[in-house]
């Protein structure tokens, strides 16, 4: 699932993160650009993941800005059971190390590759966790901006708790200040982002709606041979439910997708409104709206 990212000039939160490393002992060290390895706390025996980023192998200005901001944004997003929380940060001359919740299960992409489409009940459960994470982030003025299956991790096995991860492309917003920049992954990016407009947090809801479509069908709603074709399909925004693929999917699930994958961000549901939708509240088992 290819992505295209262009520099965002938005400001990042000024948050203080203490370099705390002496209570963790990494079992392996990073030899690649970015890698997550298990570690354990020397004092408590708790297990964590260590995401190590080799700064010497990165030269792109946008990537460097994302690396610099990721600890601060991840700390802001660390809000409980539905996000991969940040516990400590250590930086040396060569690498940046983030000590994070350990998610030993697969990511959502792996789950979908194994057995998509998912049942409505399973998709509703996963989406509810994602939307709870997004709702918490949005209240704090933080948008993820790169929601996709690779960034949804399971804390145990595929039946474990889904957690939202990777805030390296996240952006800050407020009532008075929107975000800008083409940031995200082509199949999941909202049309206002593609158009080069300023935008708010509901770009995440569009991406989550596309993700729901993929979970229930195993295919993208907006495809193409290259990024330009995908963006063209996104801008047209013709959300279709082919009978051969969606014949067994409930009208309530389709109703939610239409309200999430809505070209007009003003009419698009908020993260909290998604959580109040009957399909989500019933766990994907409603019979009538």
TrEMBL record:
The keyword Flavoprotein is annotated on this UniProt entry: no
SMART domains per the UniProt record, alphabetical: S_TKc
Record-linked InterPro entries: CDPK_Ser/Thr_kinases, Kinase-like_dom_sf, Prot_kinase_dom, Ser/Thr_kinase_AS
Superkingdom, taxonomy of origin: Eukaryota
Domain (Protein kinase) ranges: 1-280
Presence of keyword Cell wall biogenesis/degradation: no
PROSITE patterns reported in the protein's UniProt record: PROTEIN_KINASE_DOM, PROTEIN_KINASE_ST
Keyword annotations: ATP-binding, Kinase, Nucleotide-binding, Repeat, Serine/threonine-protein kinase, Transferase
Any GO molecular function: protein serine/threonine kinase activity
Family to which the UniProt record says this protein belongs: Belongs to the protein kinase superfamily. CAMK Ser/Thr protein kinase family. SNF1 subfamily.
Cited function: CIPK serine-threonine protein kinases interact with CBL proteins. Binding of a CBL protein to the regulatory NAF domain of CIPK protein lead to the activation of the kinase in a calcium-dependent manner.
Protein's recorded name: Protein kinase domain-containing protein
Species this protein is from: Asparagus officinalis
